[in-house]
């Protein structure tokens, strides 16, 4: 009997276990889609708890598969659950869960990389960016093959405040390979410090919540898995367009083991490259002999701000592509008569 004055907690009726659903619908993880099923509901409950308070919240689950995490989300008392599943084989099992929670579940058979999330939730949930995060959460046990391109896409959405972030600072709780999670959360000087570290941490508070051993999944992956929680920042640490920050950071980490000036050089055309690189490093006050993984967030901010000023002064700079120039140079050398062909430069020698 419900306690007077309190709303009774939502409970799913008796259902086949996730393992029984897999057998019932003859589901098999497809290696080419890097699928791994999580059957232990204690672990799925633990993942969902990392998202925070979900009672009466609106949740989008990405790639629910056989529905382990889906059950834990529904048991948390959500108002609405949107399931986006690309693999049609899982839809009948998810419909069974939908019928067990009338009016709570909406199933979309589609690809999260192309699904328009700016209209996925009711308009009344929208909050100002400066306010507390809205009652909207994204949760997912992501296939390894899609996790990195998807988080980069969502980070760009955070930067532009579009997609699922038209509603405000929507929080995300997602799984990644342990090594990718370490990159997302790495500090300056750490061996996993990378492009992902800068792109995620300049836009979000990123927390590596806990590790799930590989043997907890079916089939067992060759690596362990980490659960990572993202909360978009009110103010990004680098206040420049996403494309500009991404270009600078990608260039710096292009030659990860070399001095950072080596990667920064690739931002500029061969004509005047050395002079412009020196100008950028000096104005940004960055030691050119630091390795990329040693640079702090404030040093990346200085580099991006200075590069932006240089691009404003010379609009041809930003569209410049180092690899395209390198490719054209090699083509020109190939087309020269043999007697006139110069020895091509090494890619990492300028």
UniProtKB/TrEMBL annotation:
E.C. code: 2.1.1.-
Transmembrane segment boundaries: none
Family: Belongs to the class I-like SAM-binding methyltransferase superfamily. rRNA adenine N(6)-methyltransferase family. KsgA subfamily.
PROSITE patterns documented for this protein: SAM_RNA_A_N6_MT
Main location per the UniProt record: mitochondrion
Domain Ribosomal RNA adenine methylase transferase N-terminal: 43-234
Single GO cellular component term: mitochondrial matrix
Species assigned in the record: Nipponia nippon
Protein name as annotated: rRNA adenine N(6)-methyltransferase
Binding site for S-adenosyl-L-methionine: 36, 38, 63, 85, 111, 141
Domain of life: Eukaryota
Keyword rRNA processing on entry: yes
GO MF term list: DNA binding; mitochondrial transcription factor activity; RNA binding; rRNA (adenine-N6,N6-)-dimethyltransferase activity; S-adenosyl-L-methionine binding
SMART domains the record matches: rADc (SM00650)
């Amino acid at each position: 009997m419900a306690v007077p004055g309190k709303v009774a907690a939502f409970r799913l009726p008796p259902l086949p276990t996730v393992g029984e659903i897999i057998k019932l619908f003859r589901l098999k993880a497809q290696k080419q889609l890097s699928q791994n099923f999580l059957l232990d509901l204690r672990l799925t409950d633990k993942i969902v708890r990392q998202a925070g308070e979900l009672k009466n919240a609106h949740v989008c689950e990405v790639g629910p598969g056989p529905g382990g995490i889906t059950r834990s989300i529904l048991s948390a008392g959500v108002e609405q659950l949107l399931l986006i599943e690309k693999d049609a084989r899982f839809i009948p099992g998810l419909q069974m869960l939908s019928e067990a929670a009338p009016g709570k579940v909406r199933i979309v058979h589609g690809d999260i990389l192309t699904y328009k999330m700016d209209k996925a939730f009711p308009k009344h949930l929208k909050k100002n960016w400066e306010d507390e995060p809205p009652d909207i959460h994204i949760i997912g046990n992501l296939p390894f093959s899609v996790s990195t391109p998807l988080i980069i896409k969502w980070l760009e959405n955070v930067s532009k405040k579009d997609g699922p972030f038209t509603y405000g600072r929507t929080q995300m709780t997602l799984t990644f390979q342990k090594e990718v999670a370490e990159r997302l959360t790495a500090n300056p000087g750490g061996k996993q410090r990378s492009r992902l570290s800068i792109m995620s941490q300049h836009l979000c508070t990123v927390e590596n919540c806990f590790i799930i051993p590989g043997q907890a999944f079916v089939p067992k992956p060759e690596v362990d898995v980490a659960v990572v929680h993202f909360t978009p920042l009110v103010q990004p640490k680098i206040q420049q367009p996403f494309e500009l920050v991404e270009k600078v950071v990608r260039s710096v980490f292009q030659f990860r083991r070399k001095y950072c000036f080596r990667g920064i050089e690739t931002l500029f055309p061969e004509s005047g490259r050395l002079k412009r690189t020196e100008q950028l490093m000096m104005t940004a006050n960055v030691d050119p002999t630091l390795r990329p993984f040693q640079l702090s967030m404030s040093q990346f901010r200085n580099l991006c701000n200075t590069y932006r000023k240089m691009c404003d002064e010379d609009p041809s700079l930003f569209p410049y592509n180092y690899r395209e120039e390198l490719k054209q140079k090699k083509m020109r050398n190939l087309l020269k008569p043999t007697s006139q062909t110069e020895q091509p430069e090494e890619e990492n020698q300028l």
